[in-house]
Each structure stands twice: as structure tokens, then as C-alpha cells.
Amino acid sequence: MLDQTGVDSRLPLYLQLRDQLAAQIRAQIWQPGQPIPSETELRNTYQVAIGTVRRAIETLVAEGLVERTHGKGTFVRKARFDNSLFRFFRFESADGRPLAPRSVIVSRKTISAPPRAAEVLRLKPQAKVIELLRLRTVDEQPVLAENIYLCEQRFKALAGMEPAQFGDLLYPLYERECGQIVASARETLTVETVTAAQARLLGLKENTPVVVIERIAFGSDGEPLEWRQSRGAASKFRYSAEIR
Amino acid sequence: MLDQTGVDSRLPLYLQLRDQLAAQIRAQIWQPGQPIPSETELRNTYQVAIGTVRRAIETLVAEGLVERTHGKGTFVRKARFDNSLFRFFRFESADGRPLAPRSVIVSRKTISAPPRAAEVLRLKPQAKVIELLRLRTVDEQPVLAENIYLCEQRFKALAGMEPAQFGDLLYPLYERECGQIVASARETLTVETVTAAQARLLGLKENTPVVVIERIAFGSDGEPLEWRQSRGAASKFRYSAEIR
DNA sequence: TAGTGGTCTAGACCACATG
DNA sequence: ATGTGGTCTAGACCACTAT
């Protein structure tokens, strides 16, 4: 029925099919923005009922891997998701024009994982991780300081590149250079007073309150890919969430 | 097919059925915690295919109105949702026991709606609203100050009651006394420094940073029911959210 | 063992997008 | 006109829960 490339045949059929499709998306066999085969085609190639195909695709839609449009088709979703952190800090230039945040990598090191990083990324205690310190600016003003941890295994390619070449957005970089696609994230917000080092980085007075956004970013298989802490002045912060 | 009590017959069948079922849940014909009729029963009474019944119920599940358990049935969900705001502030007593927050209504007035309240609750500019000021305490210590606005029409019953009788949780009260069930909410978080009045209420020093949680609570029909602003010391704050 | 929801089939027909 | 996804039917069979 389905060829058995690593799918668990104890799962319901529609989930086995979902896994097959997800695997092909992950393997970039169907490129982001491009359509996947139609329901009828999938029914033929996998020899299952059309309803089962639909169920599998509906699952992928719910997970955000694909998008459907009525008469057009089912398309692999581009990871537009990035930058979404940034919308939580509101910065408006005087004339209200939209402002593009810039990023500077302040440092990049390969170190053995701090205990908390290893725990969050589900690595062995002394596993290697890449640590990035990154500063995000708007109109030359520093606004966000970020500590980012990545599993060295998965993100080897970044250890060899010039940090200046990383560009302003990391998630497209992860996708392009390391084949790692961020699909979802969990964020935890707290407020603390700024440390001396961070006050210097951000150009804040000491004891200013800062918001800390701790983010764990997950791949479409649910594995944690990135652990990130972002700090910015609390006074410029705004965050929205839906409940239920 | 479906009897036409206010459902839009231009909608797909499964949505018409969803609306019918949702109406009966709202009308308390099926009580929270109790099962709704089985798929087969619904198929018979409404004369639609079983798949259509399933689709309608799946929609209700997604909206959080009912819960399904395999061999048991489909149950109207109890609004356990309450109290969820409170989990965003972490308070631990010295011995780590779980602490029940207490509530005190500091004031209750019926006033004509402030502009922002009217806007949020989608009322006419000078419509009457009930304004509650409420203080939440843990171990006798004040921790959260809340301003709450409710449409007077919908929540008439509260204008007549003794505020001391309200109890510690408002949402069950809304449900019991006014038949209003909160199904979802949108929260927006910001940080500001405390005003003198609130500093007094919360027992904080002036200029302490506080987190403001502005919440709009919606009924299952998507109508805004309550507008609430909660303020608490930023140092005791913790908030989690899933993205995508 | 009976009753419930969960999976799966094999279609028909409709609505939307595009050439 | 063709091809896509969206709705709907009328079942069969399986898995879970309770008695």
C-alpha cells in the first residue's frame, strides 16, 4: 500500500500517508511554494481511498506544512514564520514608515552545551553547540539582544561560514544552509532588570526593566532545533496571544 | 432536512448542523459535562449522512465546545477555562503548597461606557456598562488589580447581587447568573510603571514595573463579553504561548 | 456484549480557478 | 472545458468503554 520508508505501519493509514508526504516535503522533493500532487494522483500512487488522502492532507494543513486553495491545488508552505518575534516589539519611526530590523552577529562560538541548553535541545550533557550572540537594530539603534543555541551536529554549516554573511533573518538561513525548517515554537515571557553587560549592548541605563522572551523552535517532526533568549526594553514591548 | 431555527441554509450542511448543535449547547439543552446524542442518533434525527454528523462534531471539538472520548461519547465541555489568567503569575508559598487565589470586589458601578470599552465590547458610544474593580490576593497579599467591563444588558443580574457573593471566580458566575459562557479570549501584554493609586492597591513602591494583561473574552458565537485589564508586579510574571 | 467514536472505502456532485 | 479542492452519501469494519 504505502512503501515502507520508515513509516510506522501500526499507525492509521492516513497518518502513514501524512508521514510519507511530510518526509517528501522535508526532503525538498516538493519545493516550498510549489504544488504537491493532486488528490486523484495521490490516490493512484498510494492506492488508498480519496477520503484517506484528504484526511492526510488536512492534517498537514493543521500542522502548517501545506496550504490549500480551492480550484488551484495544495502548496508547500514557505516558512514566512520568521521575523514573527520581532512583531512583539513595537518600533515606529517618527513618520510611521515600516522599519526593517537589522541584525549583527556579535559573536559565534562552538562550545559544549550549558546544562540548560542541553536539556532544552535534548542533547547529551557535554554535546557541542553553536552559541550566537546577536544584536538587532532599528535605525542604527540597538533594540534586542539575543543568545541563540543550536546543536552543532545539525547546524555544522554555520560553523564554517562568515557570520557577516548570515543576513538579517536566521530561519531562512537555517533552511538554506542546513536544511532545517522551523515549523512551530513555544515562547515564555518574563521580566527582569538588565545586567550591566546587556545594558551596554542595548544602550540602556542600569536597572531598566527588560522583557525576556525565551523561545524554543521546533522542526516539523517536533524536534527542538533552536533555543533562543531575546531581551529588549520592557517599555517598547507588546505581545498578543489567543487563548483556546 | 434541518429545521430552520435561524440557521443559514446557504451554508454547507455540516455547518448548518454545527450551528444547530451549538445553539442547543448554548441554550443549555445539553448541560456541561453531559453527553450529546450519539452519531447514529443525530444521523436519524437530522437525516444526514454519518460523515456529515462527524464533520459537524469535529468542528465543535476544534472550537472547544465539546470533547469526544472514544468508547464513551461526546460531551459538552465545562468552562474550566477560568482561572487561566492566574497561572501567568507564579506565586509559591515557602513550603511550595498550591495556593488558592482570593478575590475581593473593591467597587462596582454602572456607568456609561468609556470610549475604549464601548469599542472593544462593540456597544453604542453611551451604552451602560458594569465596571468592576477587583483585587486578587494570595495569602492575604494583594497580587493583581483588575478593571473589568461588562455590557449591562447581558450582565444585568450582577447589578442586583451583593458583590461579596460573587466568589473567587467570575466566569462560573457569569455562566450561572447570566447564562454567558466564555469560550475564548485574546490577550495583549505590555509593561508599564505603576500609577500611584495602583501602587497603593498592590502594595508596591512607586515606579515599580507592572505587567498589564489586557484581555477580551468572547462567547462561543464570537461576541465580546468582557474587557479586562489586570496589573501585577512584573517581577512575579511568567507567560507561555505556542506559535503556530 | 452492546454502544460509542475512529478509520476507511468508493464513489457522486458541486464550486472555484485557469486557459 | 479541464482540473482542482469542497461537500455529501451510505455504508463496513475496527477499537475502546462500560456492564
UniProtKB/TrEMBL annotation, chains A, B:
* PANTHER family named in the record: MANNOSYL-D-GLYCERATE TRANSPORT/METABOLISM SYSTEM REPRESSOR MNGR-RELATED (PTHR44846), MANNOSYL-D-GLYCERATE TRANSPORT_METABOLISM SYSTEM REPRESSOR MNGR-RELATED (PTHR44846:SF1)
Annotated protein name in UniProt: HTH-type transcriptional repressor YvoA
Q: Name one GO biological process term.
A: negative regulation of DNA-templated transcription
Q: Report if keyword Chloroplast is assigned.
A: no
InterPro entries reported in the protein's UniProt record: Bact_HTH_transcr_reg, Chorismate_lyase_/UTRA_dom_sf, Tscrpt_reg_HTH_GntR, UTRA, WH-like_DNA-bd_sf, WH_DNA-bd_sf
What are the top taxonomic ranks of the organism?
Bacteria, Pseudomonadati, Pseudomonadota, Betaproteobacteria, Burkholderiales
Per UniProt, which keywords does this protein have?
A: DNA-binding, Transcription, Transcription regulation
Q: Which GO terms describe its molecular function?
A: DNA binding; DNA-binding transcription factor activity
Q: Which gene encodes it?
A: yvoA_1
HTH gntR-type domain ranges (all copies): 11-79
Keyword Transmembrane included in the entry's annotation: no
Q: Which domain of life is it from?
A: Bacteria
